[in-house]
Amino acid sequence: MAEPVANRLASLAARYDTGNGEAEALTAQALARLAYRRRHSGKTCSRCQQDKPTSAFGPDGSRPDGLSHRCRDCDNERKRQARACKRER
User: What pLDDT does residue 32 have?
Assistant: First the structure.
Protein backbone atom coordinates (compact mmCIF):
# COMPACT_ATOMS: atom_id res chain seq x y z
CA MET A 1 0.00 0.00 0.00
CA ALA A 2 1.11 3.54 -0.58
CA GLU A 3 2.48 5.03 2.61
CA PRO A 4 0.55 8.35 2.34
CA VAL A 5 -2.72 6.42 2.06
CA ALA A 6 -1.91 4.36 5.14
CA ASN A 7 -0.96 7.50 7.08
CA ARG A 8 -4.19 9.24 6.06
CA LEU A 9 -6.29 6.23 7.06
CA ALA A 10 -4.47 6.02 10.39
CA SER A 11 -5.12 9.70 11.13
CA LEU A 12 -8.80 9.32 10.27
CA ALA A 13 -9.13 6.20 12.41
CA ALA A 14 -7.40 7.94 15.33
CA ARG A 15 -10.36 10.32 15.53
CA TYR A 16 -12.60 7.42 16.54
CA ASP A 17 -10.18 5.72 18.92
CA THR A 18 -11.51 5.47 22.48
CA GLY A 19 -8.20 4.30 23.89
CA ASN A 20 -8.59 0.56 23.49
CA GLY A 21 -6.73 0.18 20.21
CA GLU A 22 -9.66 0.67 17.87
CA ALA A 23 -7.64 2.99 15.63
CA GLU A 24 -5.25 0.22 14.61
CA ALA A 25 -8.15 -2.15 13.94
CA LEU A 26 -10.00 0.47 11.88
CA THR A 27 -6.85 1.23 9.90
CA ALA A 28 -6.24 -2.47 9.22
CA GLN A 29 -9.86 -2.95 8.11
CA ALA A 30 -9.73 0.08 5.81
CA LEU A 31 -6.43 -1.02 4.27
CA ALA A 32 -7.81 -4.53 3.74
CA ARG A 33 -10.88 -3.12 1.98
CA LEU A 34 -8.72 -0.88 -0.18
CA ALA A 35 -6.48 -3.81 -1.14
CA TYR A 36 -9.55 -5.90 -1.97
CA ARG A 37 -10.96 -3.11 -4.14
CA ARG A 38 -7.69 -2.77 -6.01
CA ARG A 39 -7.44 -6.53 -6.61
CA HIS A 40 -11.04 -6.72 -7.80
CA SER A 41 -11.25 -3.58 -9.89
CA GLY A 42 -14.76 -4.30 -11.18
CA LYS A 43 -18.05 -5.54 -9.87
CA THR A 44 -21.36 -6.85 -11.22
CA CYS A 45 -24.55 -4.99 -10.36
CA SER A 46 -27.12 -7.31 -8.80
CA ARG A 47 -29.99 -5.51 -10.54
CA CYS A 48 -28.84 -4.82 -14.12
CA GLN A 49 -26.23 -7.64 -14.16
CA GLN A 50 -23.64 -5.41 -15.89
CA ASP A 51 -19.95 -5.45 -15.02
CA LYS A 52 -18.97 -1.95 -13.95
CA PRO A 53 -15.94 -0.30 -12.32
CA THR A 54 -16.03 0.01 -8.55
CA SER A 55 -16.44 3.77 -8.94
CA ALA A 56 -19.98 3.07 -10.20
CA PHE A 57 -21.00 1.67 -6.79
CA GLY A 58 -21.80 3.67 -3.68
CA PRO A 59 -20.42 2.92 -0.23
CA ASP A 60 -22.03 0.34 2.06
CA GLY A 61 -20.14 -0.40 5.25
CA SER A 62 -22.13 -3.55 5.95
CA ARG A 63 -20.84 -5.32 2.83
CA PRO A 64 -17.50 -7.21 2.84
CA ASP A 65 -16.01 -5.07 0.08
CA GLY A 66 -17.49 -1.84 1.44
CA LEU A 67 -19.55 -1.19 -1.69
CA SER A 68 -23.26 -1.41 -2.45
CA HIS A 69 -24.53 -4.43 -4.38
CA ARG A 70 -26.42 -2.15 -6.80
CA CYS A 71 -24.71 0.35 -9.10
CA ARG A 72 -25.41 4.04 -8.57
CA ASP A 73 -27.63 4.19 -11.67
CA CYS A 74 -29.84 1.32 -10.47
CA ASP A 75 -29.90 2.66 -6.93
CA ASN A 76 -30.92 6.12 -8.17
CA GLU A 77 -33.68 4.56 -10.28
CA ARG A 78 -34.93 2.58 -7.27
CA LYS A 79 -35.01 5.76 -5.19
CA ARG A 80 -36.86 7.65 -7.96
CA GLN A 81 -39.52 4.95 -8.08
CA ALA A 82 -39.87 4.97 -4.29
CA ARG A 83 -40.33 8.76 -4.28
CA ALA A 84 -42.91 8.51 -7.08
CA CYS A 85 -44.88 5.88 -5.14
CA LYS A 86 -44.68 8.03 -2.02
CA ARG A 87 -46.06 11.06 -3.91
CA GLU A 88 -49.02 9.02 -5.20
CA ARG A 89 -50.25 8.29 -1.68
Answer: 84
